[in-house]
Write a structure and sequence with these properties.
By secondary structure, this protein is an alpha/beta fold. Helices cover about 35% and strands about 30% of the residues.
């Protein structure tokens, strides 16, 4: 039985508490938050769980083996560093930290102390994304030519990060997971409409070593909630709509083929293939529960997760490059290898 402390019970923390409690090999021993009113509310829901406003008390409690952080991004590095230094396996909600240098410090701390370090990229544990990765790996859709993701809604506005840092980590983690190629550069443009210091709409382009490209659009000021990813392959195409209740993935037997050779322009004709659409069966499971179980497996068995500290750092590196690009008029920023 692994004793876990969940730190932060604002928007996302209660979901972590509920899912960790649902696992048979886990016990949520302590909930920590700076707001006593939030703790009082959580105590009413879970009378058997201890509550505390003091993070330091969790670090000195030797019965607590793991800490899950669901706090503001600007606190991740400091809290996770203290957790790892105290010998606690550590789970951090996305994004992992505010810089790749901070991510590297956390990764090194975890390695030095042989501790599990994992980031909350929940979407890589969802049935649709796992199925998409399987389909791409099988060669069914051919070579991936491009990916286009849109994550749009009205609010929730953040005070310390822009919309790219808030929403794009979901799409970036999905794209890196299914592409299986290294990104080499990033372009990003955006605009701040409500708060002049924080962009509320961004368009990001990620270029890959194999020539692939991915576009990520994020917005807090769109009238509709859109959660859609399109993957265009040389043979078939996939549309993943997370707002769909059942048929979240649709595979379209469509493609464009150029003639293999021609002698004159008049002989050149594209061939458009229009086939059927089908939606594969997906077993419905709560991805956050799968993610929490993966964290336990990582600390118990040493199994590396798809959202390890290294994967979390890759996402932050892209967000850093996107920020630099934003400040430089959308110029291309190369990523360190």
């Amino acid at each position: 039985m692994v004793n876990v402390a969940v730190v932060g019970c604002g928007y996302w923390g209660p979901n972590l508490i509920r899912n960790f409690r649902s696992l048979s090999d886990c016990r949520v021993k302590t909930i920590c938050d700076a707001d006593p009113k939030r703790l009082e509310h959580m105590k009413q829901m879970y009378p058997d769980v201890q509550t505390s406003t003091e993070f330091a008390g969790i670090l000195t409690d030797h019965s607590i083996e793991a800490v899950a952080l669901a706090t503001p991004v600007n606190t991740h590095h400091a809290l996770a560093s203290r957790s790892l230094e105290a010998g606690k396996h550590t789970f951090i909600e996305k994004p992992m930290a505010t810089s790749s240098d901070q991510c590297r410090v956390l990764i090194d701390l975890a390695k030095q102390r042989n501790l599990a370090l994992m980031v909350g990229h929940t979407f890589v544990y969802t049935a649709p994304v796992l199925k998409i990765k399987e389909i791409i790996a099988s060669g069914e859709i051919g070579e991936v030519m491009y990916i286009s993701s849109r994550r749009l809604n009205l609010g929730l506005f953040q005070k310390d990060i822009n919309v790219a840092w808030d929403l794009a980590p979901h799409d970036i983690s999905i794209i890196l997971f299914v592409m299986d190629h290294d990104p080499v550069s990033v372009n990003c443009q955006g605009k701040a409409h409500i708060n002049p210091a924080i962009e509320d709409v961004t368009n990001m382009t990620i270029n890959f070593a194999n020539g692939g490209i991915a576009m990520v659009q994020s917005s807090w000021i769109d009238p509709r909630k859109i959660r859609e990813t399109t993957i265009v392959g040389s043979k078939r195409m996939i549309v993943y709509d997370d707002n769909e209740p059942l048929e979240k993935i649709k595979i379209y037997d469509k493609c464009v083929e150029a003639p293999p050779h021609y002698d004159t322009y008049a002989e050149f004709h594209f061939s458009y293939h229009y086939g059927d659409m089908h939606a594969p069966y997906l077993k419905q499971v709560e991805p956050l529960k799968v993610e929490c179980q993966q964290f336990l497996d990582s600390l118990q068995n040493g199994r590396k997760s798809p959202s390890s500290g290294e994967e979390g750092m890759k996402v932050v590196q892209i967000l850093e490059a996107a920020t630099r690009s934003l400040k430089n008029g959308g110029s291309e920023i190369r990523l360190a290898s």
